[in-house]
Amino acid sequence: MADLTAALHRLPTPRCAYLYDTDVLRARAGQLRAAVPPRTTLLYAVKANGHPDVVRTMAQQCDGLEVASGGELALAVTAGADRIVFGGPAKTDTELTAALKAGALLNVESPHELRRLAALGANTDICLRVNRAEGSLTGSHTMTGTPTPFGIDETQLPSVLADIPPGLRVIGFHLHAVSNNLDGPAHAAFLTDAIDWSLKTAFSYDIPLRVVNAGGGLGVDYLTDASIDLTPLSSVQVPDGVELILEPGRWLAADAGWYATEVLDLKTTHGRTFAVLRGGTHHFRLPAAWGYSHPFQIIPIDEWPHPYPRLQVTDTPVDAVGELCTPRDVLTRNQHVPRLRTGDLLVFPRAGAYGWDISHHDFLRHDPPTFLTLP
Ligand SMILES: *Cc1c(COP(=O)(O)O)cnc(C)c1O
Question: Which residues are the active-site residues?
Answer without folding.
Answer: 325
